[in-house]
Design the sequence.
């Protein structure tokens, strides 16, 4: 069988595919015409971040599975996969810890204003520390987690270690399940009103587009810190800019953007109370290794031995009847 890897992965994933005697090759040219040519006879695709729309997928006559190197799949035409009984897997157990650590890093860096202190010392102004702005603790603060999947739960666990009060908004999770983890279920707007720290872990779809926009910023506390490590578009960036300019929130961290990469003249760059990263919150070395192994294993097991398959990682398993 023939497997294509679209985007660079850790060598551990390569090894798993090769041990299964698959013919494996990597695509580095992501242009649509090249993808149509290279993918026409593949049985499986291990996909990083490139887009696979219907015009490309329709040329993949032998395709049986796409394994996403990550948990989001908005870069794949999901409807087409379902219509054509093509499996879609994600690496659901690999990245929760890494993204949760990014969120806590953002909370602490922004709350303690580490960048201000670092700059002061490097400029030789050590004795002027009284000029630094006030900074804050995570201890006993109110944290709102929107989305209580694996990542949201991993964030909650770490915040509880700081003795924070953790509130959860997720309409798809029963209150009892949230309470079992020593967290407090809450409605979205009520959570936004009381939270000192807000972190978003919801998928991007028509219901979550602009999940945080002007109306939400109008009710968020002025001392709140907002972190988005889910998908660009969950926070309306224009509304975020306005909120920062009018001091409606204390600070923000973005790992994702509405347009990636963001334009060179994006107004978000001018703020010193904003942390930005290039959609890499899940890309620690350890996590990259885990994701490559999990994605490759999904392909191998789906094509050769479905009994070994982690069905929780197959997004459209019900449509496939497995």
Sequence:
């Amino acid at each position: 069988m023939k497997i294509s890897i679209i985007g660079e992965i850790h060598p551990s994933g390569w090894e798993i595919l090769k041990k299964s005697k698959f013919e494996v090759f990597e695509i580095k040219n992501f242009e649509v015409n090249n993808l149509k040519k290279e993918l026409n006879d593949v049985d499986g695709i291990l996909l990083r971040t490139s887009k696979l729309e219907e015009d490309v997928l329709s040329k993949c006559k032998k395709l049986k599975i796409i394994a996403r190197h990550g948990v989001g799949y908005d870069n794949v035409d999901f409807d087409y996969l379902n219509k054509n009984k093509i499996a879609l897997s994600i690496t659901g157990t690999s990245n929760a810890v890494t993204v949760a650590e990014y969120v806590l890093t953002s909370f602490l860096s922004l709350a303690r204003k580490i960048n201000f202190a670092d700059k002061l010392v490097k400029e030789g102004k050590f004795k002027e520390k009284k000029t630094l702005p006030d900074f804050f603790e995570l201890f006993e603060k109110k944290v709102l987690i929107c989305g209580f999947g694996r990542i949201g739960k991993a964030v909650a666990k770490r915040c509880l270690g700081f003795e924070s009060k953790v509130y959860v908004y997720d309409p798809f999770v029963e209150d009892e399940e949230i309470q079992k983890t020593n967290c407090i279920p809450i409605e979205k707007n009520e959570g936004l009103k009381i939270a000192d720290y807000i972190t978003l872990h919801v998928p991007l779809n028509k219901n979550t587009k602009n999940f945080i926009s002007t109306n939400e910023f109008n009710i968020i506390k002025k001392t709140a810190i907002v972190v988005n490590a889910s998908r660009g578009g969950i926070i309306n960036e224009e509304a975020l800019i306005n909120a920062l300019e009018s001091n409606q929130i204390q600070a923000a961290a973005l790992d994702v953007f509405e347009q990636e990469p963001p334009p060179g003249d994006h107004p978000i760059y001018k703020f010193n109370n904003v942390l930005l990263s290039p959609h890499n919150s899940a890309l620690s070395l350890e996590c990259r290794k885990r994701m490559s192994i999990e994605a490759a294993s999904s392909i191998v097991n789906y094509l050769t031995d479905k009994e070994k398959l982690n069905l929780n990682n197959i997004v459209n398993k019900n449509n496939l009847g497995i």
Notes: The chain has 13 helices and twelve strands. The chain has two domains: 2-94+285-320, 96-276. The domain at 2-94+285-320 is CATH 3.40.50.720 (Rossmann fold). The first strand starts at residue 2 and ends at 6.
